[in-house]
Amino acid sequence: MRIDVHAHVWTDGFLDLMESFGSPNTAVHRGLGAGAGEAELAARFELMDSAGIDHQVLSISPQVPHFADADHAVTAARYANDMYAELTARFPSRFSAFAALPLPHVDAALTELARGLDELGMVGAAVTTDVLGTSLAAPSLAPLWEELDRRGAVLYVHPSGRAAHSPLVENFDMRWSAGAPIEDTIAALHLILAGVPSRYPNVRIINSHFGGALPMLLQRVDNQQPWESPGTPEKPSVAARRMWYDTVGHGHLPAIRAAAETFGADRLVLGTDFPYQADDLFRRAVTYVQDALPAADAAAVLDHNASALFPTLGK
């Protein structure tokens, strides 16, 4: 079963709600064909068929319900999850969804995680690479990691689109071109250096965009970790290979080859980043895997690895 783990749906109603609560950059998600209208969905399914993609796991990120105001966070999370639950119930063969969590409010997030997984049929949860500037490896989030570990849940990590909280990114028109993979890199390394993958071994963590620059940096991190971060509980390359990585690489063959050689092809899962890769770019998200990797590895990445992560899909 060909499963795309990196795809989005945003309705105008949801984006309006997020904007009213102060979420930035909602305009970048509008008018791209990622709504839930009948015509948009028909075009989307036709595109999926043209790429041989059977199923998409939807995430609301980067418009996640991460707000300092707890009422705003909970309201937005419930809205997103109810919206996705309705959509996946209408199209169960086409869509599953990650639950949105009202962070940084951990007790509320645990309640919504349980509702999403136990009542709404979600297949995991999605967060961004930081929570309002707080690392995913922060001690305050330990109860969430503990519950995800207890459940053996999938956690999908997507860039926040906050320019890595750096004016050197924000003020130079590269929030998404460079800022997003920088955020991926930082988040993955926070998890690795804090020992999260080994401390919570049952959580199946999926990082976006090959973990940013991680394939290029992992040997360097291994070499420098003993003196720069001596408290790291295991070799960074060992921790990195406990996680998974989606293949959104914009058709760049050297990038996916580096990721496959660094992590192993068994740690890569298909992602398209729809609607940001659409039309020919969407189809290329599949064919470049086939062009870059040996046939057996490409088949694993496209048709088997995600099925192993989500064993209930297609049953």
From TrEMBL:
UniProt keyword Lyase, yes or no: yes
Entry-linked InterPro entries: ACMSD, Amidohydro-rel, Metal_Hydrolase
Record-linked PANTHER family: 2-AMINO-3-CARBOXYLMUCONATE-6-SEMIALDEHYDE DECARBOXYLASE, ISO-OROTATE DECARBOXYLASE (EUROFUNG)
Top-level taxonomic group: Bacteria
Limits of the Amidohydrolase-related domain: 3-311
UniProt feature coiled coil, ranges: none
Name this polypeptide is given: Amidohydrolase family protein
One Pfam family this sequence matches: Amidohydro_2
Keywords: Lyase
UniProt xrefs under SUPFAM superfamilies: Metallo-dependent hydrolases
